[in-house]
Fold these 4 entries.
Entry 1:
Amino acid sequence: MDRTSRDRDGEGRARSGRPRDGLGRPLPYGVEGVPRQPEGVVRAPGETVREAQRLLDAGMPFHAHEVFEDAWKSGPAGERDLWQGLAQLSVGLTHAARGNADGGARLLLRGAARISGQGDPYGIDVGGLVRWARALAERAGEVTDAAAEAPRLLRP
């Protein structure tokens, strides 16, 4: 494949075919990376939460964000803020773990604001996630280990 041209999917949209690490950072072609999440997977809400939690626990919040992205694109319009907010929390953790403290803090606070007041749909601990995101954002600049900082999505 000619690496000077952009990778394209079957419909001609630009898609990077480069392998990625657990935090979604591109690796050089030919290096083995973490398998990418398939796009456009329609899951039941409980399955979405379970898969995202598995990825968060494994220190792969970038990949968890992709699971939440599928949920907001395929779910009911009334749940869009919930799934987008959870995706923003995952990306915020991704940025914090990559060393982008300011960007991570902004996304964590934006995600917390988006899910705040949602109740606890599907057993998701919205209040706990809001507190977690705000606390992590306040610690911006500290070294963040994505797996060690992974939030619990469900109420205890």
Entry 2:
Amino acid sequence: MIGLSPVLRTLAPMGWLALGVFVLAVAAVVFGGLGFRWDPFDLDRRRLNRAEASVAAATQQAAARTAEAEG
């Protein structure tokens, strides 16, 4: 640990910022690769609800066209 101490003392504030950004980026890549997802606005659920509503509307329209064609 003696060899690391001078490096830590000479690191400037921008160096600490760069180190922090690097650590966060590596953590995001590692956790993303392991399957962890962070979705604070629940966008996946909203996207799924819109897709299900679209499928329901398309099914209703298809049924209406079929009934119209039979009549």
Entry 3:
Amino acid sequence: MTEGATVDSRPTKIMYVAEATAHGGRDGYVTSQDGQIELKVAMPLELGGDGNGTNPEQLFAAGYSSCFHNALILVGNRAGYDLTGSTVAAKVGIGPNKRRGYGLAVALSVSLPVLDADIAAKLVDAAHEVCPYSNATRDNIDVTIVLG
């Protein structure tokens, strides 16, 4: 690949579509079309809200961590490694950006307790290429991955 060239990570075939609806923005509730999600959302205390509900950043953290962990398990299994006891935790930060809007930053903490550090790092790099959330955020959101 030539320097500066980007890889097209768009899907070539849509295999599943998730549907959710927000009612009332950050101080309302969200539902999924299949009824699996019905959650109160609230502005966090740190952003001036009452914190009496989940928020979009927590939902994004939950989605990214579970998606990245699945990608990690996939690449680990393909390479023949045991990922017993592995975990992925995500922190999603929000704050103002330079364009008078808001931006996100993500920190993923990956634990692979049964693998040596070199193998674990290779699997994390491979998972970061496979994970749809990583592909969606690449060059758009700062994503830090800490292996520990």
Entry 4:
Amino acid sequence: MDMTTAGDTGLLETLQHEVAVFARRAEQTRLGGVGQVRNSMDRAAYLLLNRLDKEGPMGVKALAASMGIDSSTVTRQVAPLVDTGLVKRTSHPEDGRAVVLQLSPRGLARLDEVRTSRRSLMAELTQEWTPQEREQFCALLTRFNTALSARQTGQPVPSGEAAPGS
């Protein structure tokens, strides 16, 4: 169903194009940050490490559910993180037979490096913006991501609220 009117077709065309350009440029740079060593990190790795940092140790199924992806994807994406020592597998504290994934000290240090570098990049890219422009962009981008996530999961699209992103 086409929900556009003649007046906003051009604006929506520009919006879809700019989102596509943003996605391409973000992937090309992996929003790697600034400095001599570009602290880039694979998007999937960054999101997994970030989730483990924010929510603590959890099993594959819980991690998959919290990220809105399937368990096999998490298993595949976590394997290299375990191999490189960024994530460790430990026994569940209440059920020793179950395995939980936990951010290792090395993983936390690497995540902090990448976050610091990405914050520096965001500061550089928005240095000419006012604090209000930064807040508005962040709120709108969060709202956009929330609506996109809701659409993908079949949830109703929230109206006007800017919830935290994934």
